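Notebook B, p. 112. Complex prediction, attempt 2.
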Amino acid sequence: MSKIRKDKTTEERILSAAKKIFVMKGMAGARMQDIADEAGINKALLHYYFKNKEKLFEVIFLEAAGKLFPKINEIFLADKPLFEKIESFCDEYITIVMENPYLPLFVLNEINQDPEYFLSKVWKGKNLPLPEKFLAQIEEEVAKGRIKRISPLHLLMNLISMTVFPFVAKPMFQKNLGLDELQFRSVMEQRKKEIPRFIIDAIKK
Amino acid sequence: MSKIRKDKTTEERILSAAKKIFVMKGMAGARMQDIADEAGINKALLHYYFKNKEKLFEVIFLEAAGKLFPKINEIFLADKPLFEKIESFCDEYITIVMENPYLPLFVLNEINQDPEYFLSKVWKGKNLPLPEKFLAQIEEEVAKGRIKRISPLHLLMNLISMTVFPFVAKPMFQKNLGLDELQFRSVMEQRKKEIPRFIIDAIKK
DNA sequence: ATCTTTGTTAACCATTTGGTTAAAAATGTC
DNA sequence: GACATTTTTAACCAAATGGTTAACAAAGAT
């Protein structure tokens, strides 16, 4: 069979549509007929290409998680000075999530539905979290007197919280603070610099 | 009709069961039969007492939001020094959410499904966000030279992010950092003090 | 005790949902 | 062009879902 593909294959159209609908509605709320409509195909094709809803969902979920989790592991493992790590994490992570601001909520919500199941899928070998090096790095900076005493665990939580949560709570912040879409994006761009500055101000001696 | 109630009325049992199921599964994933099973009643009673799924859901959602949103408005409006506000917000908010750690994710997820609809329900008069006073307070502290230059908006985002997000991402943090249930609770207790300390270290001159 | 009102039950209903099937259409191979 | 394989279609299916109904039971009012 020839491997030459013209424009979007049916499979690609399904995946693209499924991503849109699953990210918006979640597993429980998404309807196969809606995915088929979005892809412009007959619903039976979803089963021809992906067997069932669960299999299709898994592809989408793993792709989404594959965008979010390796990046966190990257700061764990990188050989860089601490402050640089913080700066590049914020910059890169916000850039990634800005391309699809609903990803974090989607992934976190599904993980909360069945943590063991979903996290085992995500961690199947490839994205195993390895925080030890990063946490040890923070301890070392404290011991060397370069930063104030702080628990590595809390520093990590603070970093990830400030970077990700505004996306999760987007409508709430928009309404609370009177931000339209453009303004929200602008604020998140600012945060690429604001968060590292805030953190470094908090821990620098 | 006598208003004397013995133990749990049927209505109370429904509400209690509905809260459990809706918070766990969300609107889309919750099943009326599951709620009835949880309450130990016949499913038809759900409609006798609450007409339909949407009406029942709304009661639960508003109750949940009513736990989370007024507290945020409280820091906006309180006549207290800034640092005290930050300290008491973290302390009280974490205490509230610890009683039901899944509330933030539940409320935020539903709001993201239809922001206009849900936020208008929440803001129907009573919980209208009034951040101006708080934001002005931060500006004043900056102008008086008591804290470093910082955008009030970012400070507010940082405060709420660090307080709430660990609950939203609970399974992820547990897995990443090897925390069992007790340890997670202990970490969140620590954060009552750690977050204000971190923030104050970041902004204090 | 009688009647009215409220609460409960089990059966039922129409629609929706994820999935199946067989036939037709399209594509690939020689 | 003939045959094989893959893709697509429309109809169909069983189960699940939110909701309805009528009968009965319990509680309230007089």
